[in-house]
Amino acid sequence: GGPAGDCDGAAAGDACGPAGSGPAATQAREQPVLEPVLPAPAEEQNGTDSAKAPKVNCEERNTTGIDRFTLQILNVSQDLMEFLNPNSSDCTLVLFYTPWCRFSASLAPHFNSLPRAFPTLRFLALDASQHSSLSTRFGTVAVPNILLFQGAKPMARFNHTDRTLETLKDFIFNQTGIEAKSDVAVTEEDWEGPLPSVLTKGIDWLLLFSVLFLAGFVMYATVRTESIRWLIPGQEHEHQE
User: Fold this and answer.
1) Phi and psi angles of residue 91, each rounded to the nearest 5 degrees, phi first
2) CATH 1.25.40.10: does it fit domain 72-192?
3) Mean confidence (pLDDT) of the chain
4) Which residues of 141-161 are buried (b: 16+ CB within 10 A; e: fewer)?
5) pLDDT of 140-190, one tens digit each?
6) How far apart are CA 25 and CA 10, in angstroms?
7) Is residue 22 very low, low, confident or very high in pLDDT (cuts 50, 70, 90)?
8) What is the pLDDT of residues 57-80, one digit of tens each?
9) Where is this region: Disordered (predicted)?
């Protein structure tokens, strides 16, 4: 629905790094495409219709017998590829998040309501800090990050800095042509889960290990430097004087 931009980052101040080690990359904001008010000639009308064609032809799943449409969160032992069928054309919206990122927490209730708005699509979420290999594979340099998959192939990345239910609806409609249910809104249950909307404090073990390693290296280098000074001719004599 807008001009192409940098799909590998997020606007500064609007996203968190997956490992918490630096600022997020720049993310482009999509601009809405304005439709002409006056009737266009036949040739231009055909061009407009082709521009509105869905970019991804999703196979909508059968919802018969499904009473509750909800988001599924992958745990650390589950692989995303196990939930994506490479031989099908069904579509899945996958969210990369971290529980300590406040932008992921603010997005949570809106993303929790999406399965009710699009019951024929599938919605998954995974902790990017626990699935670092997937984050590297799909170029997730900042969270929250949302990818639209067709089968097992990523087709589009959500690039809005305004992450609300309405912008998410517009993104899915622009990509797939599937309209959202108009009566769906964010409820109190969506704030409670399944995706957490409350920040979780945790320890960044990678950062802690890095700090301890650097401290140990500095101490080792200092001790070795003092030892080498005693081996240099003239240094011991100078010290005695």
Assistant:
1) -110, 145
2) no
3) 76
4) bbbbbbbbbbbeebebbbbbb
5) 778 899 999 999 899 999 988 889 999 999 999 999 999 999 889 999 999
6) 5
7) very low
8) 888 888 887 778 889 999 888 888
9) 1-54
Q: Label residue 222 exposed, middle or buried (CB < 10 Å: 0-12, 13-18, 19+).
A: exposed
Q: Where are the domains of the chain?
A: 72-192
- Which pTM does this prediction carry? 0.63
Q: Which residue has tokens 């704030």?
A: 191
For position 227, what pLDDT does the model report? 65
Round to whole Å and give the CA distance between 170 and 32.
10
